[in-house]
Design goal:
Rab-GAP-TBC_dom; two-stranded antiparallel ribbon; TBC1 domain family member 19; Rab-GAP_TBC_sf; mainly alpha; 530 residues; TBC1D19; 3% strand; two-stranded antiparallel sheet
Length: 530
């Protein structure tokens, strides 16, 4: 029996190794990593007569061993926790209707986009006229001064439109009366965690450990002036190791402001290398070369959101650059459209005034992502972390591909928006039953109140420092479940006031200002209490 188990383990490890060997070759850093290893092998540090040992020693002293370990870590993350449990539930329950809903939703967005183009008599894509290209290039670092009339443009959809789509989804196996209001997502059979299970995940929070984000002057357990000094000291040592798993573990107790950007880049594998700088320049050149209707939607969205936000208006110029480059990034397309939770529908646009040949046809937009009202807010907090637009771009992109695209995609994924809404409802119903009943009595669906928080990951709703503390936790635990947990906690915190109002406008007024909230203490309270 033991021998069989051992053989099975070896076979499993071999399969994983083969899969890793194959898939690592398609990872972004493979070429540069392989080139560095080749250089090392050809150097005098590696001896032919003792090839294996001298190579391992050289890899270690050169820092390439850590680079390889980080690459494996990022590969494992891409395979791991964000999908495992859902695959089990998918085998048990037929959730294909969710994928159909996503396909229909994508078609609806595309139809809306085409209608916008027809109404405004503008093409989906064209070669940018020379004069416009020159002006764009000249104003690249101050695109807020780029003069363009966008008065006729409107966002294709807003979070409330997407929520209506989610509410319209019905499980074919679920019987309901025709006049019954779609009150909740409970008919959708996706596994979500209980509060007890969340406590086991967010152990550092649930145990009441000393965390940054509570009180920076909290006494240190070592010989430091306070906790923040201690965390800075340890954080610098973590960054010196250049080891992503250690950085991820470190984030569980909070990131010092000065180190946060470097820690996030390390965990996400988005540290900028020379080939990244070159690719970023290519994206910029594509923006200058092609004029696509998405550009107008992006500029409009920045104007409607970040420009009108006291915390982010100063970053308007860098946000234009970031979002415009993102729209041209074909490396975003594959992960988003091939993810099993996505519909995979893309538009193919022929450049205006060009023959309908293959070379004049492009996937539209090249990233495959069509922005909605508030899409820019996924990028705004990164402005506080990086001075270099290129560094900001790659970490934003990595964060989006790991987490944010799930927040505007209908899917059966346990980290998808449907599951997060379901988790919110279950937690509220179980742990704040009086509040849940109150909402039912006044005919307000609780998820309608918090959906904009969840879909944006609280960006634009929490002050930047508190938001970054929340996003530290998303990265640290590699999970979006902290978002609905925080949403429930905020309702619980404002429960007394919420119980005294009886219409949606008043409920929203009670929850309009979150500027005084401290994220980490609130989450600790939620996870500590029985």
């Amino acid at each position: 029996m033991t021998e069989n188990a051992e053989n099975s383990k070896k076979t499993s490890l071999q399969r994983s190794a083969e899969k890793l060997t194959e898939e690592i070759q398609s990872m972004a850093n493979y070429k540069s990593l392989y080139a560095e290893i080749q250089k090392l092998v050809a150097s005098t540090a590696v001896k032919r007569e003792d090839f294996k040992n001298t190579l391992l020693e050289a890899l270690k002293s050169n820092g390439l061993e850590t680079e390889i370990r980080n690459t494996v870590f990022h590969w494992v993350r891409s395979q791991g926790s964000l999908s495992t449990a859902t695959e089990i539930s998918m085998e048990e329950v037929d959730l294909t209707y969710l994928k159909k809903a996503q396909i229909q939703w994508e078609r609806r967005i595309q139809k809306s986009l085409n209608s916008t183009c027809n109404e405004l008599n503008v093409p989906l894509a064209r070669i940018r006229p020379n004069a416009d290209r020159e002006e764009f290039a000249e104003k690249w670092n101050e695109l807020s001064t780029y003069d363009i009339d966008l008065s006729q443009y409107r966002p294709l959809y807003a979070p409330k439109d997407f929520l209506d789509v989610l509410f319209s989804i019905r499980n074919p196996a679920f019987k309901k009366h025709s006049d019954e209001l779609n009150w909740e997502f409970s008919h959708i059979q996706i596994r979500v965690k209980t509060l007890t299970q969340l406590r086991r995940v967010y152990l550092e929070l649930a145990k009441g450990m000393s965390l940054l984000g509570v009180n920076p002057d909290m006494p240190s357990s070592e010989n430091f002036g306070n906790l923040e000094e201690e965390r800075i000291f340890i954080g610098e040592k973590v960054l010196k190791t250049n080891h992503a798993p250690i950085a991820q573990q470190f984030l569980k107790r909070g990131a010092p402001r000065a180190l946060r950007g470097s820690l996030w880049s390390l965990v996400l594998g988005s540290t900028v290398k020379q080939n990244d700088i070159e690719y970023y320049e290519e994206l910029k050149n594509m923006v200058l070369q092609y004029d696509i209707v998405i550009d107008k939607l992006i500029i409009k969205d920045v104007q409607l959101t970040a420009r009108n936000d006291d915390q982010y208006f100063v970053f308007e110029d860098v946000l234009y650059k970031t979002m415009l480059c993102f729209s041209r990034d074909s490396e975003v397309l594959a992960p988003v459209t091939t993810d099993r939770s996505a519909g995979g529908q893309v538009i193919h646009a022929v450049l205006q005034g060009k023959p309908a040949t293959l070379e004049n046809t492009l996937v539209f937009p090249p990233s495959g992502v069509i922005p909605f009202h508030g899409f820019t807010m996924y990028a705004t907090p990164f402005c506080y972390l990086y001075d270099d637009p290129c560094a900001m771009y790659y970490t934003f992109r990595a964060f989006y591909l790991r987490y944010w695209f799930r927040l505007h995609t209908v899917s059966s994924h346990e980290q998808g928006i449907v599951a997060l809404c379901l988790l919110f409802e279950r937690l509220l119903q179980c742990h704040e039953p009086l509040l849940w009943i109150h909402f039912r009595n006044i005919h307000i669906q609780p998820v309608r109140i918090v959906f904009k928080w969840i879909m944006r990951g609280f960006s634009g709703h929490l002050p930047p420092e508190q938001l970054l503390c929340l996003w530290d936790l998303i990265l640290a635990y590699d999970s979006l479940e902290i978002i609905p947990l925080l949403a429930v906690t905020i309702l619980s915190f404002r429960k007394e006031n919420l119980m005294q109002v009886n219409n949606q406008q008043s409920v929203e007024a009670v929850l309009a200002d979150l500027s005084s909230l401290k994220v980490v203490p609130l989450l600790q309270l939620a996870l500590l209490r029985e």
